[in-house]
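Weekly puzzle thread! Below is a chain. First person to post its structure in token form gets bragging rights.
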Amino acid sequence: MDKQFCSIVIPVHNNELTIERTLASLISNKDYIHEIIIVDDGCTDKTLDQVNQFTSNWFANIRIIAFSEPNKSRGPGPARQRS
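Winning reply:
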């Protein structure tokens, strides 16, 4: 049987304290993950810097999607729909 792969969507808004732990948990199962999509919901902290560092060091298939109006949070629902 062929492996099944999935895409993970993570809306983020100022999650610098938890994003590394979240990504580390996900890539522990990276054999089943096709991509991780980070939807930036107006981050004003170092969340995206940590995502970029994680991408370059551990898992290359992470995409960041940002809303056109930076620094304005819309909530997780619109962020998920954006992806």
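Puzzle host: Confirmed. Bonus trivia for everyone else. The mean pLDDT is 83.
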